[in-house]
Design goal:
This protein has 108 residues and is an alpha+beta fold. Helix content is 21%, strand content 46%. It has 2 helices and 6 strands. A 6-stranded mixed beta sheet has the order 2-1-6-5-4-3, covered by helices on one side. The longest helix is centred in the middle third of the chain and has 15 residues. The protein is globular.
């Protein structure tokens, strides 16, 4: 089985999905995250959302593909957890800036 190699901030993001405090090391201070029709701006808002989502859904993401598109890194991951429709494949659209995540949009 091939191992997927992710850029460092993206690998750190997936490693931190159940430890929101670790997310501070993945995002820029003014990063924007869009998920499930909501937009979270700034690391504190992103950490609060991720803490709530982790407690509510206990989701685990396993990235399996990455490609570049128009300056973005597109990662597809199998996501399973305590939510309707689990498991599901989600797309994560990352824009990196100076070694950190400046924006992230998660879609089905």
């Amino acid at each position: 089985m091939d191992t997927l190699t992710l850029p460092e901030p993206i690998a750190a993001y997936f490693a931190a999905e159940h430890t929101p405090e670790a997310l501070a090391h993945c995002f820029t201070a003014q990063a924007v995250m869009k998920d499930d029709g909501h937009t979270y701006t700034g690391i504190d808002a992103i950490k609060a959302f991720m803490a709530e989502a982790s407690a509510k859904y206990s989701a685990t993401s396993v990235p399996f593909a990455i490609e570049r598109e128009d300056g973005f890194q597109l990662v597809r991951a199998n996501v399973s957890g305590n939510f309707p429709g689990s498991p599901i494949v989600l797309s994560y659209r990352f824009r990196l800036e100076r070694g950190l995540i400046a924006s992230l949009e998660i879609t089905a």
